[in-house]
């Protein structure tokens, strides 16, 4: 039995759909905070709240493999993830798979510390594990693309920094490959897209797809934050966005590896394909 936590999220839904192509639906469990949102998944649904350890023990009972999709509540992830790890240990699972961040144990990436702590908790638990260090998603730029098409441009402070992104579906396919394959125990995969692009190149791509001029304006971090605050973003969110652009400028999201390509057995989805889908939906 394979249990997928966070199964009603964007990534979780794609993983469940992919698993259903490989294993019988009755062998898949969607462990979710709101079971009513999982009724359409076509698999067994169990309530699992990262903040309620007793619900996690029940959700993971009888599990052979568990995919721990990292939580979305920044600042709360370590205790939440640790509770899942403990439940997995209690269930005696044969493999715990975790969606982490690029080079989580060594990177100064703003998102890395909570992932590093989770990886440490997984190793301390003594369970066979696979760490999927997911790089950036093409879909993270959906709002950027929409704004660029509507206004003719977008801003940032990433300079010439590159992003080696791939589609969310590519990362989901990698998780499915690990959960249904062999020989992935105690391995760490650094997952990225096949091509790393700059914000200026993203602007060119949007312009080509939309058939209209699009410009990227690079600002200083201070100017960028001021513009975000003026646009109505909360202080914390604005600071986070600027920090991520700084990380991008420093090359922390730009390293290309073959791990994702190799796991899914095909090239990763180019940013242009995702941009085309977003533009088409407008």
From TrEMBL:
TM stretches of this protein: none
InterPro entries (UniProt xref): NAD(P)-bd_dom, NAD(P)-bd_dom_sf, NmrA-type_oxidoreductase
Gene3D superfamilies: NAD(P)-binding Rossmann-like Domain (3.40.50.720), UDP-galactose 4-epimerase, domain 1 (3.90.25.10)
Domain NAD(P)-binding: 6-180
Pfam families (UniProt xref): NAD_binding_10 (PF13460)
Cross-referenced CDD domains: TMR_SDR_a
SUPFAM superfamilies to which the protein is assigned, alphabetical: NAD(P)-binding Rossmann-fold domains
This protein's name: NAD(P)H dehydrogenase (Quinone)
Biological source species: Amycolatopsis sacchari
